[in-house]
Amino acid sequence: MKIALLLFLLAPVLVFAHGGGLDEQGGHFNRKTNRYECHKEPCFSIHKQSKEAYQQATPGTFSRIYNRKDWPHWIDADGDCQNTRQELLIATSKVPVQFKDYRRCTVRQGKWYGVYTGRTFYRASDLDIDHIVPLAHAHRHGADQWTKAQRRKFANDYENLLVVDDSTNQAKSDQAPHEWLPPQKNYWCEYGKRWERVKDKYGLRYSDQERIALNSLAETCLY
């Protein structure tokens, strides 16, 4: 856990492109490397503070370890045998879905547009349900103090869920916008907007690096 957090803190920051020059933080997005680069203050200081925060952390800082089993997800809230995943697949398919059997509990086929990649999918088995704000990220930014009921609500909140292809979801993992963005660049603005909406809804903390990325995105997208 401690090693993973170190990699998280030291990871290069991604921020969204501007039409030339440096942003107000003293950095810019390099399209050739797909990385955010610092050139002046306060960008350097923000990164330094993140490293120092890790170095000064006590063992107690890492005592609440994330466990996905603590987050009840894909529940059948209305008792119709279709859990959160199946309900979302049904709601977002562009055509009437086909089920695996007569019980109509599990979706087998449909037609889904993947906003992260721009690709269309027909088999439910090729799809994951992505938490826009990942469960592990939420845990690190305040949700470690939540009750089980609060975690269940967050894990099944449709406002925080998207149907995406499984490989892209795995590539994203639990990364924040300064670490990962959808391959489909024309979805970046909507992604940033939904990320902030969910974090604000649940009162989750923002890291400095995360806030830099989202502020730069807001300036670019004008939403």
Topology:
Elements: H1 2-10, E1 27-30, E2 35-38, H2 43-55, H3 84-92, E3 98-99, E4 107-113, E5 120-123, E6 127-131, H4 135-140, H5 148-155, E7 161-165, H6 166-172, H7 188-201, H8 208-221
Antiparallel strand pairs: 1-2, 3-4, 4-5, 6-7
Task: List the main descriptive attributes of the protein structure presented here.
223 residues; globular; disordered N terminus; single chain; alpha+beta; GmrSD_C
Summarize the model shown.
With 223 residues, the protein is of the alpha+beta class. It is 36% helix and 14% strand. The strands form three sheets. The chain has a three-stranded antiparallel beta sheet with strand order 3-4-5.
Can you describe this structure?
It contains eight helices and seven strands, in the order αββααββββααβααα. It is α+β, with helices and mostly antiparallel strands. The chain folds into two domains: 19-53, no CATH class; 68-219, no CATH class. Strands 3-4-5 form a three-stranded antiparallel beta sheet. A two-stranded antiparallel sheet has the order 1-2. Helix 7 crosses helix 8. The model is unreliable at 1-19 and 57-63 (pLDDT under 50). Keywords: Signal. Residues 122-210 form the GmrSD restriction endonucleases C-terminal domain.
